[in-house]
User: What shape does this take?
Amino acid sequence: MHEHIPLSIPHVSGEEMKYMKQAIDTNWVAPLGPNVDEMERLAMEFTGAAAALATNSGTAAIHLSLAALDIGQGDTVFCQSFTFAASANPIVYQGATPVFIDSEPDTWNMSPQALQRALHDAAAKEKLPKAVIVVHLYGQSAKMAELQALTDRYGVPIIEDAAESLGATYHGKQTGTIGKAGIFSFNGNKIITTSGGGMLVSDDIAFIEKARKLSTQAKEQAPYYLHESIGFNYRMSNVSAGIGIAQFGVLPKRILTKRFIFDYYSKHLVSNTAIQMHSEFTGTYNNYWLTTLTLDVNPHDVMQAMARHNIETRLLWKPMHTQPCFAGCAFYAHEVNETSISEQLFATGLCLPSTTSLTESDLAHVVATLNTAVQAIQEKREIEV
Ligand SMILES: Cc1ncc(COP(=O)(O)O)c(C=O)c1O
Assistant: This one.
């Protein structure tokens, strides 16, 4: 049996201990310190954003962005339905109501035509959303110009959930720096990691400073503990930030490796007509955090067959408007009265192992196993029919 091939695990650079040791040797073992400052500087330098706030998760960064926009009870926030639950959960933490927007088939991200209908209806009811959360899933940028033209018309800010897309660009601009604010995740499965952490970026320095205050229990400038508003404990640890500094050093290399992995799979799966690769959309540069594809056979059967050969694959995200915890929330499909794009993707899609430390021999094993699995499922289906 071939060794286990995981979907996406951390890939250390070898420099992590240096910065973690520095933190311990200098007693900076706190949710602040020189490593945290350096992480914020690196995030600004890499993305070009004017301001950055390091947090203890990407989810915390989304939550802070909504809190800093004063979103609360009675407000609505539009959110891409095809995503991980962490994009939408902070809307509910703030007591606001999510309205879910479908994807379009090119990028798999927010559908401009669904957003247009949702904004039109909200304006007619005089209940515009306080924000729109657009996600750049799997490292593929959304169609930002089309989405922004709509949100600008109604004066609604965009929060970019770039948790999965650090280093991916839209017409040369880094994802996460196009809307009002953007967030990144440094969770263990992401392109670079701090073991657990996140980053909020924006060109609005005052906005980031407001979020910074909220992230440290909203302490006021006073000689005693004074709190005029409710805050959170969301800062990144200086020890974790040490891991992140080392990881930032290898980010350009990691992006190239993720792109190599996608190219390898594409090249070697091209003759399999039951497989459609999800390639980067014109004008965008994908970090290919995960290689994704759609299949003409049931992806659940393929996932199980791959697992029997010790290879971890994963179904695409189950859309938020189909999740029991969001039952009753409004949803706008790409096309009225048709099965949504996000549901079609969930029913047909799969993520392939994309860890940057995989060898070419691992990738060849994934390709061979996938081809065999798909063929076996197709033949079984033909026999059953
Ligand atoms: C699309 C998306 N949004 C948000 C998050 C949340 O990030 P974190 O796990 O750092 O809280 C993740 C990843 O976990 C994600 O994939």
Q: What stands out?
A: The chain has a mean pLDDT of 97.
